[in-house]
Amino acid sequence: MLTSATAAELIDALRAVIRSGRAVQHHAYQHEDLPPGAIALLSLLHRDGEQRLGRLAARLDVDPSVISRQVAPLERAGLVRRRPDPGDGRAGLLAVTEDGDRYLCAHQRRWAELVATALTDWAEEDAEALIAGLRRLTADIRAVRELADS
To answer: Are 22 and 63 in contact (CB under 8 A)?
Structure first.
């Protein structure tokens, strides 16, 4: 069982990672034409495929108006397309276009290069252990949240 002191250290370490990540992200996104939220949305659509705006909002735990604002620049840039939902004509389905795939691949390649440069002295096993730990942490936090929501 985790002690309170270790939990507090973990929280501090996560906050430091988030702060560092935001600083790097701010610098990196100065060269992007899209805000970070729009790129995160593009990435989610790319990974999970076509879906309704409302489902995206629920998955990201934000108001649908937030998703609408993030989708607008993606649609204007031709990176996402919207079509009527055949099951419900009032709703629309969002999907990544070929241009969106290319944009996202280039973006992800730049980020992967940045991370690889930052972790150049890490052994592959250390990175894999961190990935496993972060996935476990995410799943455990999600489970607690779902328990609290029910």
So the answer is: no
DSSP state of 120: T
End-to-end CA distance of the chain: 24
Q: Taking Cα atoms as reference points, which of 76, 18, 87, 22 lies closest to residue 50?
A: 87
Bridge partners (DSSP) listed for residue 81: 95
Contact 100, 46 (CB under 8 A): yes
- Could you give the maximum distance between any two Cα atoms of the chain, in Å? 54
What global pTM score does this model have?
A: 0.75
Report the DSSP beta bridge partners of residue 51: 94
Two tokens, residue 142: 């999600």
Give the neighbor-by-neighbor strand order of the sheet with 80-85: 51-52, 88-96, 80-85
What tens digit of pLDDT does each residue of 32-81 get? 778 878 888 999 999 999 999 989 998 888 899 999 999 999 999 999 99
What ranges in 30-150 are assigned the alpha helix state H? 36-48, 53-60, 64-76, 98-118, 124-149
DSSP per residue, 104-116: HHHHHHHHHHHHH
- Pick the closest to residue 53 from 99, 94, 108 (CA basis): 94
